[in-house]
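REQUEST FORM: STRUCTURE PREDICTION
Request ID: SP-0412
Submitted by: Lab K.M.
Chain count: 1
Length (residues): 189
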Amino acid sequence: MSVWARVLVLPRPRSAAQEIFWATLGAVALALLAQVRIPLTPVPITLQVLGVLLLAGWLGPYAGTLAVLEYLALGTCGLPVFTQGLAGAPWMLITGGFLFAFGPAAFLYGVLTQRVTGLSYPVRLAALFAGGLLAVGIIYLGGWAWFAAWCHVGAGVAFQKAVAPFILMDIGKVCVAAALLAWRGAKEA
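STATUS: Completed
RESULT:
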């Protein structure tokens, strides 16, 4: 088995110590993905959503969600893990809706990924794609509502500014995550 195959086919954590170890590595990976910026819109697109999906799919619902929570805790405590090296509670107040929705989205996607493990590749791929869209929808709902409340704007304006610019790129991220996780499931079978 190649090195890349070993990286993509991580063993499932078995003990609490292993779950914490993988979750901590996942939080670091998420912090690194937050630094990758694609400047196509006034608000840069990052790879955080892809990271949330992949962590949930590879680590499962508990360790994947723990990784996201560790990431948020590190950023809230002042470590520069958010995009552009930002950190602290003030940054959480600005983008908090999206960030706080990462946890529920990771848990949901992690549960789904575990449930589709034994299915055929095309069915698994379709389910992971649909589940990824649902997880991103949860992230959008959190960010959309938070943005509307924080900026005192209507739902339409909030959608136009906080959600619409990211839809196509996030669909692409869902495709990447679903393909990698479906392929990983084929390797485990």
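NOTES: The domain at 14-188 is CATH 1.10.1760.20 (Arp2/3 complex 21 kDa subunit ARPC3).
Reviewed by: T.R.
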